[in-house]
Amino acid sequence: MAGASLTTYNDAKKTPILLAAENEYFDIVGYFLEQDHRETVFDDLELAAALHILTEKDTSKEKSKWGIELLKYSLVKRIQFNVPKIVAEPVGLYSNQRECQTVDELNQIQADDNRLHVEALLIQERVLLSGDENLSLSWLFDRAMIFVNKSQFEQCLDLILYIFHLSQHGESQPSPEQYFWLFYNMFKSGEPIPEQRFWEVCDLIFQSMTLNFDPSHKRDQLHLLGLATKIEHSEILSNLREINLDYSDVANIYCHGSRTQGTCTPTSDRDLIIVTYSKQEPLTFWKDFDYFHEFQLHKLHNKYDVCVYSVENFEKLLEKNYLLCIQCLFLPKQFIVKEKIDFRSVYLDKYYNPKRIKLVALYEMYVPIGMMCQPKRSSDSEVLSIAADKSQAKRDFIFKNLFHVIRFLDLAEQLIETRSIHDLTRVSHLLVTMKEVRGDPTDECALDRVLDFVRVKSTEIQSRLNALVPREPLVGLFKVHITFEYQSNFQEMRTKLKSKLNYPNYQFAILRILDEKDFPHLTATRFYHGEYPSMIPSLEKEIREELADFNIESITITSSISNDGVPNSDMEMKLLWDEQVCCFQLCYKVFSCNQRVKSSIKSIISKRKWSQSLQTCLSSYKMTRVDEDKFEYILKVSLSDFDRKTVLEIHNEVMNSSKQGIIASSNIEPEFVVYRRQI
Question: 159, 200 in Cβ contact below 8 A?
Fold first, then answer.
């Protein structure tokens, strides 16, 4: 034992005397105390005993016996070495109890678990308050949070006042955030709170810590969330130096993210957007849609996520109706640290566009869902792919973005309906539901369950968006393709149709798909001038009445590519049209449908492939018109993931090439498939 230092800690932060006590070698403990019987040595022993009692509360009494015996031993040795305790005056928080100073007093309470628990708390507070490293009173805040979790709010408020009293009359320096999370978790618990006392204590705590405290504030969640931002103002401003910005160079500072949405936790990042007068390079937008863009994110102190935009770039994002920035324009004032430029007026006067708002909200939905369903994306967004990344961090990232699918759709609905965002927390409660739906985050099916939930909720909001901003109708000439069910009297029907006396609006033909063993299909086509989709009910009724003698199998409608309302971009088609139905379509009469012809057309298409995989489908069939005996070979090309301009370029190149084996007179204008229905 020679040379052992009682103040030396091992890797487990335990001293030699504490190790001896834990192993009940009290003779060794006594030897150590003979060598060093300072107050701090006794404090270490008694704190260990107190923490043991607090930890083992509500467990077997056998486990608590060691702590009691150690306290008794310490009291005996204090008397032996004349080291009396210096105990605090009784306070109501501890039922006016006083820490035991003799073994007899300890014997009287050792059978009372509740009183023994109070004794341990008194020892803990006495010892920890005497240590310089314990000025944050963290153990008391931990105890207060236990009260919150048990919905014992009166006891929690008592303890908050006691902590505040200690901080006012001593050297303790708890952070405002420690108080905030107690109040916030009480408020968010869903359990009834003592409202009058809750706000009185809250105001007492924060009015001395917050600049421009408003005593007439609304008593709501928004006020609490705003307090969290206000108490961080000085820290936020100090972040400017970290990114080489001077306060005078900054126009606006917005606090956004989970704090404003009411979904924050103690580990949540603080999200800031800073708009500066300094110059920046113009923004570079993703290729598939001019919305998401490259930017630098400053991560400061493992706490703040800071994005800096120049005034010009921020306004460019307002022009694009970038929802993350637009929501900042409608933040309550307590979340705006600085505002020298009224960007809300700029946006509403120059860039507010309900059609664009709807489109970008759908794109905000498309990307996160695509992270699960379409892992192969364009090169500038490959980082989002989860094809080869199954880590939990990536799963959590996707989960978070699936929540934002619902949130941005809701923000878009508010903007379109009211030209404002009046409630940033309107769908925040769904995050709790999504966590319940997910269950175990490590379950491989967890995200699939969440995705199903998000699809249902997003469909509900989409239907309301469609009512607020209907898709632009297609107006012009349409071609209706009708396929009939195969019947045994096929030849009889063909003979009857040759007269065409009863069906002057239709052109009938027999189609047989090449390379497939299938019955021939009887089809009819007709042209129709109108407006899609409003024309559908009357058109279908007309078809059923005019072709009552036949069993209709399906109806497909194609629009002339030149009609008003045909989507100009492939992303517009993905977001506003049903991808399972809609595509561009090219049809050509060819001398023969051999592989050479198909390969030649594919090569023309492949030249226009972008970085993502473009979908094409070539099919060929033999068509015989009912009123003629000759037949023709038809080659049909279906194109997805192309815009209208590129489709026209492909068509022109195909028609101008002499190598395709295409009959020159078959220059049929490209079409856009808008409707397909099985009857």
Answer: no
Helix (H) or strand (E) holding 115, with range, is helix 113-129
**Residue 176: per-residue pLDDT:** 87
Q: Do 56 and 63 form a contact (C-beta atoms < 8 A)? A: yes
Q: Is 350 helix (H, G, I), strand (E, B) or coil?
A: helix
90 is written with which tokens?
Answer: 């009784």
Is pLDDT at 59 greater than 60 in this prediction? no
DSSP state of 669: P
The pLDDT score that the predictor gives to residue 500 is: 57
Determine the Cα–Cα distance for residues 238 and 245; give it in Å rounded to an integer: 10
CA-based angle 609:613:615, to the nearest 5?
Answer: 85
Using alpha carbons, select from 478, 668, 472 the residue that is nearest to residue 568. 472
> Is residue 327 a contact partner of residue 421, using CB atoms and an 8 Å limit?
yes
- Where would I find the beta strands (DSSP E) of 561-600? 583-590
Alpha-carbon span 161 to 147, nearest angstrom: 14
Average pLDDT in the chain: 85
Closest by CA position to 335, among listed 224, 444, 243, 442: 224
Structure tokens that stand for 4 in this block: 């052992």
Enumerate residues 6+ apart whose C-beta is below 8 A from 477: 527, 528, 529, 559, 560, 563
C-alpha to C-alpha distances, 279 to 19, 197, 328, 487, nearest whole angstrom? 62, 50, 21, 73
- My answer on whether omega of the bond before 533 falls inside 30° of 0, hence cis, is yes
Q: Is 465 exposed, middle or buried, given 0-12, 13-18 or 19+ CB atoms closer than 10 A?
A: buried
d(CA 370, CA 454) in angstroms, rounded, equals 13
Beta strands in 291-439 (DSSP E): 297-300, 304-310, 336-339
Given strand 297-300, what is the order of strands in its sheet?
A: 297-300, 304-310, 270-276, 250-256, 336-339
Give the separation between CA 117 and CA 139, rounded to whole angstroms: 15
Distance between CA atoms of 501 and 511, rounded to whole angstroms? 22
| Mean pLDDT of all residues in 421-431 | 95
Supply the pTM of this predicted model: 0.77
DSSP state of 293: B
| Helix, coil or strand: residue 564 | strand
Sorted by where each starts, the structural domains of the chain and their CATH numbers stand as 16-223 (no CATH), 232-352 (3.30.460.10), 355-468 (no CATH), 474-678 (no CATH)
- For residue 336, give the nearest of 239, 441, 233, 258 by alpha carbon: 233
Among 375-389, 415-429, 483-497, 651-665, the range of highest mean pLDDT: 415-429
- CA atoms of 518 and 94, how far apart (whole Å): 88
